[in-house]
Amino acid sequence: MLRSLFLAAAGSSRLERLAESVPVSKGIARRFVAGEDDTEALRVSRELADDGLGVTLAHLSADTETAEQAAAVRDGYVAVLGRLRDAGLTPAAEVSAKLSALGLRIDEKTAYENAHAVCAAAAEAGTTVTIDAEDHGTTDATIETVLELRRDFPRTGVALQAHLRRTEGDCRELSAAGSRVRLCKGAYAEPESVAFQSALDVDKSFVRCLNILMSGEGYPMVATHDPRLIAIAEDRARWFDRSTGEYEFQLLYGVRPEEQARLAAGGHTVRVYLPYGDQWYGYLMRRIAERPVGMAKVVTSRK
Ligand code: FAD
Predict the structure, then answer these.
(1) Are 264 and 284 found together in one domain?
(2) Whether residue 54 sits in one domain with residue 25
């Protein structure tokens, strides 16, 4: 009930305008979002890097409908990559990008060309790009685009979602040497025809995918806050004889920070997904919807 309330709030443009008129620094958003601009993103990246954590910076932009908007997203990433390099924050910090923000709704060619420019800027800055996973209608285009990008930038990462029935097969295809794959549960509501619906089935799929990635030759990036799945991943890494630099954990900024610190202290590579930008409202509501009871308490207890 609370979850659907927050998800409905995520889609409300009136609430969005109201919330975004308050600076990130003044509200609950600061727990999950670095800030509204590059300067804030760099400041928080520095803090995380000083704590021994890697970063993947994700720009929160408005829906991209035109080539001009896609080019603006591309230019934003190119600029922030230059600033990360100048600040000495690469390779600790990389970026995550959505192909829809880079123009996938216009056509695949636009998204590919913009993503190519971002990958080129990342390579120039001595770091990498990971392409986020979006709804299942975009999965084929995402994987095809990443395979294409990897011809020039072999370390381009891709996110796969364990809740999709197809993902075990995708993991097999993408577990080749050098292949950086982020495995997450999946954040989009999907129909039963393409996705597991129960939490248990999603978790089982996550473990099957993890087995494929950990036993393969690629570089698994285990993106979850789930204590059981984190423990299983640690276990599988031991089973398959992977040393700590041969896989990484990824968690969202503001979520289970004590677990981020624990994993890093244990010698694991940990990367924090760090969103920034002025279009933070929908992202914040989705985070709250994931843990509505706990977060409602936080929201109401804050001044
Ligand atoms: P959940 O099922 O949400 O939670 C499992 C357990 O984890 C909970 O029972 C609790 O014990 C613990 N937990 C979870 N959240 C909290 C919290 N806030 N505080 C305390 N304990 C908590 N999705 C996509 O669709 N595409 C992407 O590209 C993508 N990229 C991601 C990148 C990263 C780094 C991460 C961490 C997630 C990403 N996601 C992405 C989101 C992901 O798909 C899930 O929606 C989200 O991570 C919640 O799933 P979970 O694995 O944390 O498990």
Answers:
(1) no
(2) no
